[in-house]
Amino acid sequence: MYRRGDDYDEVEDDSDDDVGIGIRMNGSCRKYTPIPQDEEELYPVLPGDKDSPDPETALNEARMDLGFTPPKKQSRNILEKTFYRKRKTKPKVNRSYLIKRSLEKCRDYLPDSCECTTQCLKNFFCRIFPFIKIMQGYSLLYDFPSDLVAGLTVGIMHIPQGMAYALLTQLPPVYGLYTSFYPVLTYFLFGTSRHVSVGTFAVISLMVGAVVDKGHVAYQKLELLHVEAMAANLTSDHPMLNTTFLDGKNHLEKLEEIKVSYAMSVTFAVGALQMILGFLRLGFVTTFLSDPLISGFTTGAAVHVFSSQIKSAFGIAVGRYSGPLKLVYAYRDFFSNLHNANFVTMTATIVAICALIAIKEGINNNKSIKSKLKIPIPIELLVIVGGTVISFYLHLNKEFNVEIVGEVPRGLPPLNVEQLRFVPDLIGESFAICFTAFAISFAMAKILADKHNYEVDANQELLAYGISNMIGSMFSSFCCSGSLSRSMVQDNVGGKTQVTSLVSSLLVIIVLVSLGPVFETLPNCILAAIIIVSLKGLFLQFKELRRLWKVSKVDFCVWIVVFLSTVLLDVDLGLLVGLIFNLIPVLLRTQTPYTSLLGNVEGTDVYADISLHKQAKEIPGIKIFRFESALYYGNIQHFRKRLIKDTGLDPKALKQLKQAKAEADMAKQHKEICMATKTAWNDEPCNHSDTDQQPDTEDEREVDPYAIVLDGSTIQYIDSVTVRVLKEIVQEFAAVDVEVFLGECKAAVRGMLDKSGFYKYVPRRQVCATIHHAVRIAQRSHVLTPDQEFHALRKKAVSVDTIGSDYVMAPESSFVNLELLTSNNSSEDDSDDRRKDIS
What is the mean pLDDT of the chain? Predict the structure, then answer.
């Protein structure tokens, strides 16, 4: 069809069959406007004349007059179209076409940015496997010798520490060697730190041991149920009770199986949680574990580690306890059974501790001798070898009843997924281990990375530890972590990269494959001595208390609370209490922050705290209030209270005072009327005292506050509740003739005010760019206010005829506009007098 202005082709067109045609005449040129049927929206039909010709006939006659053959079909009445006006409608949108077109555009440009090139694949694999990038610049001539020496040194430390820390998890020592092998290899592939030594760590081993204790307690309860069932000649279908507990061998095997299953299950849960945090890029969550919290927690955990080894060091039987105050009960049993201590065990422990301290402190950590040694003396390994040899030849276990390690299986453990059957039950316990292990490991990695000028990725570290724990749990390895002592040794010896881990793993696998049975006669007291001496660094954290007391009393309290809660309650409960208590100061600082009143520094546009800076003077009539925190629903009421208290302006009290003043004015007027008509109305009493307070003179009168300026420079963000309360505050003060201004607000604050409809109730002029701007607007607004003193101000302005005056009188008109100006010629005293006059 055709619209006006388009020439019509006289050739017959079938496309007009279903549409009506409106005829338009434009001079000598005949134009036709086609009317699509689907766009018709007609106004009410005008009634036609009964004697009018048939519409279709009239249409055909009209077209014949124009010299062309009309269409065969007509679906619209042409005469009716002359009485109707077309209304344009919005064209319909084909959404499927738009989506298809958008996808085609995406397909056009995606290959340009996501082209699968060699460099793209290289970058991808370098992100997944950071060791590729680390090994690109690796030198076999310069780097490998250092890594070889460091790897042998760290591997020698892995063997005694792995076997010793396995005792903290209530597992056989060989599981510590497994943990020193599988997670180390996995971290080599996925880790970003070049100097952290991954494997066993005392605090993490103790936390895993606490979970294993729960499994032991649960097993004992099931054992008691089974014994009762057997005594009653009953049978049980419970999967853990399908063996005979009266058989000692089956009982010990089943107990060890339950312990291993609990340890592997919690390790898998920790790894899964770490992987989830890594995929979600939540590595920043460890920032909630502050340094005082970690220090107090690890020191408290060191007390638990030490307490768990005294029974092995003295050869005393101590009951197994769990939950709060378990250390109190353990030490009660220890001192009550101290007379039953094994003399040979005590002697071996004391000798081992003395040897360890003498070599470590006298040689390895001695600065004068340490510089001459290329590698530290492996005193832990020497003590283990010496203790094993002496125990083997003197038969300490048989002759003197000294506890030994026992059977150490040869070879590597097979893949075992059945050990993970308790994972759903231990998800809650895995959170504390997850955050603690990663916080300690990442803190150590960050220190070493800053020392050697490279970066570590927190999210990739989470993935690395998560994969290490998940894979390790399938091969009988418990939860791993970075070791503080081994990492420092690896760095001091000269380790360059994680090739050190490969060398140490090679040494560990040699021990597992060929030398495992050699350590079967190793006394447990030797391992206990190694653990006790290794706790020295953790106990030295008590020195932090003096520094924290001088620097921050809050951090000092956090350290003490976390330490005491960890010692008295338990490791997991202590960490939970520490997290909560660590957040309390943060909440208090945001909920009850520091507030102050600001004053202007003379001769500048700088505003400072009047209680801290003598140069800052408060501006008469204007209160500038600063709230040094973000505003949100938790502290907005405190903001309101401090605003009223610091400024001394309570809108409710001011409203009552205003009403009282109005009543006093009415009473004064009534008194004047009484005095004026006293002679005429002698019978009317005039009960007014002559001692009514007389108004102060102009010089004695102080400037009443007429504006409040809120300093927004320290307010980082606000929420919807804050916007509502701010609106209420502005309206409450406006009701008592006090304007509230916001100065120097952040962009986020201004955006929130705009989105929340704040300007529907508050003029935009009351939100200023700077504090000085808000002060000037407040002063000018007060001068232009039509109040009772306006006429006095006008007279004063008329009398001033100097060009440099503060107040300039506008031309004579129905409304006088006065503007406040600054003058360099007027003195400060005159300016103060004028402010008094204005008020």
Answer: 78
- Domain segments of the chain: what residues? 14-81, 143-311+326-414+426-532+543-561, 592-671+703-783, 784-839
The stretch 170-181 carries a mean pLDDT of: 93
CA distance 725 to 87: 49
Superfamily of domain 592-671+703-783: STAS domain (3.30.750.24)
Distance CA 152, CA 147 (A): 8
**DSSP code of residue 764:** G
Residues, the chain, total?
Answer: 839
CA distance 630 to 718: 6
Of residues 591, 583, 562, the one with CA closest to residue 574: 562
pLDDT at residue 541, as a whole number: 92
Mean pLDDT of 632-643: 93
Q: What are the residues facing 34 on neighbouring strands?
A: 21
Which band of pLDDT confidence, cut at 50, 70 and 90, is reported for residue 796?
A: very low
CB 233 within 8 A of CB 215: no
Report in angstroms the alpha-carbon separations of 598 from 273, 617, 621, 801. 50, 8, 13, 35
In a 3-state reduction of DSSP, which class is residue 34? Answer: strand
Q: Quick check: helix, strand or coil at residue 716?
A: coil
pLDDT confidence band for 205 (50 / 70 / 90) = very high
Write out the DSSP string of 35-96: E-GGG--PPPPPPPPTTSPPHHHHHHHHHHHHTSPPPS---S-HHHHTT------PPPP-HH
b/e map 365-401, b = 16+ CB within 10 Å:
eeeeeeeeeeebebbbbebbbebbeebeeeebbeebe
Q: Quick check: 318 and 331 in contact, CB under 8 A?
A: no
pLDDT > 90 fraction of the chain, expressed in percent and rounded: 46
The tens digit of pLDDT for each residue in 351-369 reads: 999 999 999 988 888 888 8
Does an H or E element contain 234, and which?
Answer: none
Q: Which residues of 799-827 are buried (b: 16+ CB within 10 A; e: fewer)?
A: eeeeeebbbebeeeeeebebebeeeeebe
Distance CA 504, CA 511 (A): 11
> pLDDT class for 770, splitting at 50, 70, 90?
very high
Structure tokens at 782: 């007060």
- Please indicate whether residue 227 or residue 594 has the higher confidence score (pLDDT): 594
Nearest to 236 by CA among 249, 223, 226, 251: 226
Q: Where are the alpha helices (DSSP H) in 169-247?
A: 174-179, 182-190, 202-231
With 80 as the cut, is the pLDDT of residue 756 above it? Answer: yes
CA distances from 710 to 335, 446, 626, 772, 778 (A): 65, 41, 6, 11, 12
Task: Give the DSSP per-residue string, 582-622.
Answer: HHHHHHHHHHS--EEEEEEETTSS-EEETTT-TTEEPPTTE
CA distances from 749 to 447, 739, 777 (A): 37, 20, 20
Which tops the pLDDT comparison, 89 or 497? 497
If we measure between CA atoms, which residue out of 382, 395, 373, 393 comes closest to residue 351? Answer: 382
CB distance 317 to 311 below 8 Å: yes
**pLDDT tens-digit profile of 290-320?**
889 999 999 999 999 999 899 899 999 888 7
Give the per-residue pLDDT at 67.
Answer: 52
How many CB atoms neighbour CB 124 within 10 A? 11
Say how far apart CA 196 and CA 150 lie, in whole Å: 12
Question: Which pairs with CB-CB distance under 8 Å and at least 24 residues apart come from 358-367?
Answer: 360/533
How far, in Å, are 51, 160, 268, 677 from residue 474 at the CA level? 100, 23, 8, 108
**Three-state secondary structure call for residue 701:** coil
The token pair that represents 344 in the structure block: 């040979």
Nearest-5° angle of CA 780, CA 786, CA 787?
110
